[in-house]
Amino acid sequence: MLAGRISDIYQPKPVFIAGFFLIGVLGIGAGFVHNIIGLIVLRAFQGIGAAMTIPSATAMLTGAFTTPLARGIALTFFASVGTLGLCLGFVLGGIIVQFATWRWVFWVVPIITVPLSVASMFIIPSGKHAAEIKTNKKLDVPGVVAFTGSIILLIFALSQAPIVGWGTARVLAPLVVAVTMMVGFFLWQTRLHDEHALIPPKTWFIPNFFVLTLVSFCTQIYLTGPILVLSEYWPAAYNWGALTIGLHVDRYWSYTFPSFILITMGSSAAYMISNVGIVTSVPPDAVGVAAAIFNASQQVGGAINVAIISTVLVQVQNRHPYPSYKGPSSAMWFIVALGLLQVVVVALFFKPQKKAAVPPADDAVERK
User: Fold this and answer.
1) Which of 317, 319, 338 is nearest to 329 (CA)?
2) What are all long-range contacts of 124-128, with beta carbons under 8 Å and residues at least 24 apart?
3) What radius of gyration do the chain's Cα atoms show?
4) CA distance 293 to 287
5) pLDDT tens sequence across 112-140
6) What predicted TM-score, i.e. pTM, was given to this entire model?
7) I want to staple 21 with a disulfide (CB 3.0 to 4.6 A). Which of 117, 192, 311, 316 is the partner?
């Protein structure tokens, strides 16, 4: 969120390059680390770098493509590449782990990102000039601290819930603090002027903004949920490796493979539509924050849904151990129910916006 605000007020290019470079440098360290705590810390800072790139890249694209048609095409392509990268990441990660070592999963990243981040200093054109920088806007430091802190604590609590249980202090304490900080953040935003607020309250009343945010809240789980469930089930139940699953699973090509094609198509469409819809619904000087809201809703939604799926999987699996499929089946039915609920919400609350009528060419000539 801070990166999005800086991109809106100042220059998005340095934010993007810094985040891109940070991902690569920390990837080198993650490949050499020998303890889980160090790996988690480095991955957390890599996440910060990744969070810096998305809103800044979106801000640069909307600044480079000024017409609605060109901007829509650019943002759609940007969103589709992100979805493609998510899909290919699972495949390439499996190949690397199968034939090399898990450390190369981290080392491959800096081989790509470090040279590109250096090249971006010369390839990407400069954005705003000094005269265009919004000097009347300020960074909402308390808001950034409250919002970021609440997100970190919330994701931590949800990630620990399937492991230690929902009723433990390790989950309840950070969860209560996270909710309290989030409520305090939104109350704080109501006291600030729109020029200074991190997320002005009126943002949520922009047509379809809230609905599209809810859509982005669920887009990741449709793709990552089945992969998470089945990637655990197949090796645990049948002791199969990453590259042998497709050759041994009963009726894989007739059921599982077509299902993943449809899942990829549906989740990609939801991702692109919600991404482009959110970014294009706000003024140009709020694109960075809008992209950051989209990214944050995806991450928080992914954490919440993964926590729920993992809890369902573990609880059912305790009563029906592998190779029983009842645990994965229950998790899959939750994803189906979530998708149906989202369809109902969109059908009821999404309001298509009418485009302004363009006068015929001959009428325009007559007026001239």
Assistant:
1) 317
2) 124/13, 124/16, 124/17, 124/60, 125/64, 126/11, 126/13, 127/11, 127/12, 127/13, 127/59, 127/60, 127/63, 128/10, 128/11, 128/63
3) 22
4) 10
5) 889 999 998 888 887 654 445 555 566 77
6) 0.70
7) 117
